Structures are given as C-alpha cells and as structure tokens.
Amino acid sequence: MATSDRVLLNGLRVLGCHGVTDEERQLAQPFEVDVELEVDLTDSSTRDDLDCTVDYAVVAAKVDQVVSSSSYRLLESLAGAIAKVVLDLPHVEAITVEIRKLRPPMPYDASSVGVRLRREACTAT
Fold first, then answer.
1. 15 to 18, 58, 64, 119: CA distances (angstroms)
2. Is 101 an annotated catalytic residue?
C-alpha cells in the first residue's frame, strides 16, 4: 500500500572512496546523503512506539557502513547499494536516496555533483 508518510534523514556527511579516478578510490572524500523513506506512520503517530516505525539512527548507520566500507566508480551504484540495504529494514515501502560528492574532480566551480534515485521494496504475493 502506497503512503504519503515519510521519514527523512538529510545532510548526513560520510567519508568514502568512490569515483572514476584512482585517486578518488584511494583517498577518502566527503559525501552528503539524503534519505527519504516512504513508511506508513499511522501506528507510530498514535502509539508513540519506535517499533512501529523506522529508526533513523539505524538508517544512518547503514548508510555510513555502505559508503565507508565499499568502493564504487559511479554515484549511481553507490546510491543503489544504499537503497538495497535500507529497503531490507522493516516498514520501509520505498526509498529515495540523494548523494552529493562535495569535492568533484573537475576543472569547474561546483559546490557538489550528485544523483537521486527512488526504489520500491519488493512485496511478496
């Protein structure tokens, strides 16, 4: 069942070794991650019970683990890996992940480059 309820985690700063160049894959650099989870918050909003929702601290730990312990050439692949891990959490119906590389290696002045993707949880029939 699709919901308009959301759990948000914005501006999580994590270090990782991701990029096309050898230097990017060897030297940790900062990434900023936003996660928007589609979650039915009906029970948690009436029962005031953490077990009825998604713990954003757990989401942050999972994002940090993926970013800091893996190495991807493309931000698209990194965002997909984050989405896959977080979609395994209970109550998560869909996820939007936005990742920004804060020090893009290009000869232009840009505060960041990034990607945004949305994935839905698979439901058993």
1. 9, 17, 8, 23
2. yes
Catalytic residue of the set 31, 101, 110, 119: 101
**Domains in the chain: ranges and CATH:** 6-120 (3.30.1130.10)
Cβ distance 80 to 86 under 8 Å?
no
The beta-strand segments (E) located in 3-70 are 6-16, 29-39
pLDDT for 95-105, tens place per residue? 999 999 998 88
- Give the three-state DSSP class for 95: strand
Asked whether residue 125 carries a pLDDT value surpassing 50, the answer given is no
Q: How far is the C-alpha of 44 from the C-alpha of 51, rounded, in Å?
A: 8
**Residue 1 pLDDT greater than 70, yes or no:** no
User: What tokens appear for 83 in the block?
Assistant: 């989405």
Strands (E), 17-109: 29-39, 92-101
Quick one: which of 90, 94, 81 has its CA closest to 33? 81
pLDDT tens profile 40-56: 999 999 999 999 999 99
